[in-house]
Design a protein that fits this description.
195 residues
């Protein structure tokens, strides 16, 4: 697989710029969904460059899904992206292809479960955006990113400000949105910037 590591790193640095210490996933612990999600995001980001972090990130998102069923769609989207990262780190081309295909199936399942979750849509859309053409996922990327642009006006306030600002930057720079949508989401960014 030949997509650029630096492009993927940029995407996930933008999303997950917050630093956080790692949490242990203990079945008896009482970590909140947000704590687990933040930990999972950080591990996911680290997994882009460090294959050894993939398994721990997988454990976190699997546990998040188990403990907080309302987070299942987002968790499955991340779990699929983690499988795609296994493909990125795999040595053999056939293994790379299989892992990415498996990851795409999981990400699609996550989006089916949470079709209006901006974060899940972003993980799905940005991953598909940077996949090589032979995976045939450019339309899926456009659909997910377009859906985010539609949802932002009504949902932006429900998400972390930094996440929304960075999602908007990505949409403006990478998604081919109609100028009217770009203007609308830039208004949202300006409102967030004033806070």
């Amino acid at each position: 697989m030949n997509y650029s590591i630096s492009i993927l790193v940029t995407i996930f640095v933008i999303i997950f710029s917050m630093s956080m210490s790692m949490l242990a996933v203990d079945p008896d612990s009482s970590f909140s969904a947000e704590d687990m999600l933040q930990n999972g995001r950080e591990l996911f980001h680290q997994s882009i460059e460090h294959e050894d972090k993939i398994e721990l990130a997988t454990v976190v998102f699997t546990e998040l899904k188990k403990r907080y069923p309302d987070m299942a769609g987002r968790s499955d989207t991340y779990l699929g992206a983690l499988d795609a990262l296994r493909g990125k780190h795999a040595t053999w081309p056939v293994s790379k292809f299989r892992w990415v295909k498996k990851g795409l199936t999981k990400m699609d399942s996550g989006i089916e479960q949470s079709p209006e979750d901006i974060e899940a849509l972003f993980i799905h859309g940005s991953t598909c955006h940077y996949l090589p053409f032979f995976f045939g996922r450019k339309d899926d990327s456009r659909e997910s990113l377009g859906k985010i642009a539609e949802l932002l006006p009504s949902q932006a306030s429900e998400y972390d400000t930094t996440l929304i600002m960075n999602v908007i930057d990505f949409l403006v720079e990478e998604a081919s949105l109609p100028s009217i949508q770009v203007a609308e989401i830039m208004q949202i960014k300006n409102q967030f910037a004033e806070k």
